[in-house]
Amino acid sequence: MNIVVGVTGGIAAYKTVHLVRLLTKAGHDVTVVPTADALRFVGLPTWEAISRHPVTTSVHDDVAKVRHVALGQAAELVVVAPATANTLAKMAAGLADDLLGTTLLATEAPVLVAPAMHAEMWRHPATQANMGTLRERGVHVVGPADGELAGGDSGPGRMAEPEEVFAAAQALLTPGDLAGVRVVVSAGGTREPIDPVRFLGNRSSGRQGVALAAEAAARGAEVTLVAANVSGDVREAARHPGIRVVTVGTAAELSAAMAEAGADAQVVVMAAAVADYRPVEVSARKLTKDTGGVPPIELVENEDIVAGLAAARRAGQLVIAFAAETPEDEAEMLDRARAKQQRKGVDLLVVNEVGWDRGFERAENTVHILGPGGTAAGTASGSKREVAAAVWDAIVRER
Known about the structure:
The chain has helices at residues 13-25, 44-51, 67-74, 85-93, 99-106, 119-123, 125-136, 162-173, 207-218, 232-235, 251-262, 305-311, 330-344, 384-398, and strands spanning 2-7, 29-34, 77-83, 111-115, 140-141, 145-148, 154-158, 182-188, 192-193, 199-200, 222-228, 243-248, 267-270, 277-279, 299-301, 318-325, 348-353, 364-370, 376-383. By secondary structure, the chain is an alpha/beta fold. The strands form 5 sheets. Strands 12-11-8-13-16-17-18-19 form an 8-stranded mixed β-sheet, sandwiched between helices. α3 (67-74) crosses α5 and α9 packs across α14 (384-398).
């Protein structure tokens, strides 16, 4: 495939060297189009050496071949990595003051961007508005990740790793193994109100569920993401033309949303952490210390949402559950998982160990995947997107 890789002026340009190497090793014909500022971070000889093509930033080079238009016309995919805030703004405005800008305007191929910038720049309303404009035009987005940034800062804005950008590019070039499949994924943690201020909840950030939704969309699925109390920064990772987001708060709201979205879905993945109990009564006013003593809170058990989905599933529909455990060892964790899988009646169960320093609110995860009858269907460890890929591999094998 003929791929144009645009490189813009950010320190993350060093990652794009590895991305170009991955693309060329996969057999693609890659032309690198850097901006002038990008060459301050990685020099022209490097781009020419790994792409095996001449590299220029100017619209005035190779004029006889009308290169400023021909590159975009011939491309089957254009990737911009890193995509700085400035570049995203120029793309949204349709500016074409360099070779990358003219290439982007001249192409009718899919465009994939990997944003990279400081967290404040990513959160800025102007950047978010530009991203909204680009998504409406069908531009595909991978990342940014939440992590360490230049200068020792940390937050959303870190460019996705080259392997993740490569996977997103490959998905756009070839029909995914989930093309046309309707998928519902839940993410986050439910909150059961005690009063207008307090609630019973859990530590789930929603990162794993959002990663599952993003991976499914990248593989061609039509995805509904039911997000329970997922922060904006986490949910941002699920921005994709193939993902519809439904926001819920409580277990009852999650149950209703999953039942509605799952009615015509072919795969239902229950990754959200559901509160096991809710208060029998919810105070209309904040409970205060001056009411006299510690107020008793009577609890009632919430319904088992995933068991209900499994019991109501149609022929051919797959239902997948997640389980978070705090076992003494791996053997105990798998025993608990198999018992839970049988009790709930799901097709696959994904189990991971959680604790104060693992599982929840972390960028990485380690899981065991159990297939029908509790058989081992795989393990995965790494970023939550890498874990999501392994889970979908196991699901695809069962379809």
